[in-house]
Amino acid sequence: MKILIAADMEGVTGVVCWDHVSPAHPEYARFRRLMTNDVNAAIRGACDAGADEVLISDGHSSGRNILIEALDPRARLRSGSPSPLSMVSGVETGVDGVALVGYHARIGVENAILEHTWSDERVAALRINGQFTGETGLNAAICGHFGAPILMISGDQTVCAEAQALLGDVETAVVKIATGRMSAECFPPAVTEQRIYEAAFRAVTRLSRGEVPPPLRLPAPLTMEIDFVQSEMADKASQLPGSTREGRTLRYVAADILTMFQAFRCALALAR
User: Fold this and answer.
1) Please, which residues have CB within 8 angstroms of residue 172's CB and are 6 or more apart in sequence?
2) Helices (DSSP H) in the chain: which residue ranges?
3) What CATH number belongs to 2-118+134-208?
């Protein structure tokens, strides 16, 4: 079995504020090591359950966060940015399942550490076919395009609930209980790494038995709506060919999720 572990940082053990995930801040060094440790726990769980190939996608910001010198040697690391599929780079190579580690909830929900959807500076909301969607849903849909189911997720209690509401009975590892956007009751690494290990072990065991939820496949055509934080951003993004604009909202209709994702990234680049 080949497993992709797609890692973000806001949902990593102990993270509660932007300083923890920003390379320019002194505390970042601590938390990139904690991110690496969370990923290693997922690798151990997946391998102990029978995975014979594990690929890691470093999906936070520049994609240069995970410490390769501290990474479990049974895995390979996709690092750097930009890459065509961004946070789930590698799913196009053909994987049997995907584990989401260190994820955060979508923009606009309560009790969710650093909740946002791609860019809290630009995106006030993302809807696909009328449904509010965060990074969990967006990346799950991209994985679904390639036939890969989401097996597990780790992060705060809110993103774990978001994943199960969208995807069904995926395994979860709650590493902190968010009490606000930048406050949480955090569990120590000895606890969280065991939770992530156990969730990954259960997830890959279920995969081997054919007992996981199906891949997320969104019905085409896909109508994407981006609510920008400022109207100036919508002014800029509306230069995207094929898009329409109303107020701060940009609308784009795509034939498939990959085309929609390309349009999404282009719109956000224009909106800078």
Assistant:
1) 152, 153, 154, 160, 163, 164, 199
2) 28-48, 135-145, 157-167, 189-208, 231-237, 257-270
3) 3.40.50.10780
How far from chain centre, in Å, is Cα 233?
A: 24
- What is the Cα gyration radius of the chain? 18
Residue 204 identity: V
CA distances, 183 to each of 14, 241, 262 (Å): 10, 41, 34
Helix, strand, coil shares of the chain as percentages rounded to 5? Answer: 35, 25, 40
215 sits in the region (left: phi over 0; alpha: psi -120 to 50; else beta) called beta
**Residue with token string 């590698």:** 90
- Domain map (residue ranges) of the chain: 2-118+134-208, 222-270
Per-residue pLDDT tens digits of the chain, which is 272 residues long: 999 999 999 999 999 999 999 999 999 999 999 999 999 999 999 999 999 999 999 999 999 999 999 999 999 999 999 999 999 999 999 999 999 999 999 999 999 999 999 999 999 999 999 999 999 999 999 999 999 999 999 999 999 999 999 999 999 999 999 999 999 999 999 999 999 999 999 999 999 999 999 999 999 999 999 999 999 999 999 999 999 999 999 999 999 999 999 999 999 999 99
Residue 22 token pair:
């920003």
CA distance 117 to 138: 9
Task: Compute the C-alpha angle 243/129/222, nearest 5°.
Answer: 55
Rounded to 10 degrees, the C-alpha dihedral 81/87/91/95 comes to 130
C-alpha triplet 156, 88, 40: angle, nearest 5° = 60
As a whole number of angstroms, the distance between CA 155 and CA 254 comes to: 31
Q: How many residues does the chain have?
A: 272
